[in-house]
Amino acid sequence: MKNIVFDLGAVLIDWNPRHLYRKIFHSEAEMEHFLTEICPMSWNVEMDGGKPFAQGCAERIKLFPPYADAIVAYHSRWAEMMGDAIEGTVQILRELKQKEYPCYALTNWSAETFPLAQAKFSFLNEFDGMVVSGEEKCTKPDPRIYQILLERYHLRAQDCIFTDDNPNNIEVACRLGFDTILFTTPKQLQLELHLRNIL
Known about the structure:
Layout: E1 3-6, E2 13-15, H1 18-24, H2 28-38, H3 41-48, H4 53-63, H5 68-76, E3 82-85, H6 87-98, E4 103-107, H7 114-120, E5 129-132, H8 133-136, H9 143-152, E6 160-164, H10 167-175, E7 179-182, H11 186-195
């Protein structure tokens, strides 16, 4: 039986800093400037990899003092970046569990903020195992984090189907021997699993 491995953000959970920063900035252009130049995703990945938010925010404030309040909000109001669950994918997860497929999560997520997601989304308790980058101090697409998943749960890559919305993460998983699905929509994921005789 195949093991199904899910990314979380943009696959099962609608996480997007814009949910918060549309409340803070008066224009889309100002918000996009902040999220591309002041607190870009490359910076967010540092926290996903284990850097404390207090340190990361302090470093940014030193570089961009006029944006201090908005930078602090990245941590203090982080929960407002979480939208709703992506219900179509949650339903797929539950159908897989009903069919007794082992399901795992492999996510880039700060160890500081992941408990907020766990408190909001009860389906996170339905996984058979989970690897969170912030706890491991290692982020996708580093091959080491995939190996952590395989070794911790005694899995073989060739027995796993991995879905993620990031092509770089998919590429590395494919090189390691995973069957991969680049996630775009729940309907597309369901079709790919149907083609594999999973659903």
